[in-house]
Amino acid sequence: MITIPFMIMAAVALVSVVYAIVTRIRTRRTLDSVSDMLDSAIDGEISETSFDESMTSLLESKLHEYLSSSSLSAQKVEEEKEKIKTLISDISHQTKTPIANLVLYSDLLAEEDLSESSKQKLDAIRSQSEKLQFLIDSLVKMSRLENGLMNYVPVVSSVEELLESITDNLSSKAASKGISIEYEPTDLCINSDPKWTYEAIFNIADNAVKYTNEGGVKMYATEYEMFVRIDIEDTGIGISEEDSAKVFSRFYRSREVSEEEGVGIGLCLAREIITGVGGYIRLESTPGKGSKFSVYVPKGKNLSEVS
Length: 307
Fold this sequence. Notes:
about 300 residues; Heat Shock Protein 90; alpha+beta
């Protein structure tokens, strides 16, 4: 005979099972809904959704609100990037013509019969015009880099050709100072954007020549498992430990070089570019003895392996 207590226990057990099944179904539905919302957020498509007043639906509502807010923030970031891109383009375009005209008229005036005083002033105008153009071009590049507007196209290229080109372009500048610039032949290759990698390493080598008065600059490459390390080593004035932490900052110039030509943006650009192509830069320096910049660039298949 079935007793009342047994019937009560059976009823409680049945209710518990039903409750567990219903809870599991609701939990599953909530997880599916959350998963759908996350998929929509990843695809950038957050749509209007209605929710009831249950606790699980409250969770869905909060998540939907958060994802909608994040989606709007991402859209605003993209809109701001477009505005910055347009502004950079406008600045670059609007300044090129006036500065080009300054240089042009300086060249025309240089053909006239001028006094020595006038020639000196004319040289100063031309020099400052070129400096201004360089500064604007550098700031435009820096802004593009910092705002993620630069597109890098990795290409496997020869390190030797890169170093040879830099050496050729800086040899006359080095010769005018009575110093040498040379590189060691190598069959190593890098997998990086050739144009921007050249600019980064050229900036470092140009600085090395600028701040070396005796001896010279040498460049060489070393192979690692994932990188090629390109060293630019000089026998120049060196960099103090205090300044070593600051030389990659925009417009930073130490007291020792404050009288030299320059705007203090070359190393900053170099670091941003090398970081952008997936590499990094290390610096070793001793004041009065020289500096060594080690540029780590993603490795490509070596020429000896190709042949």
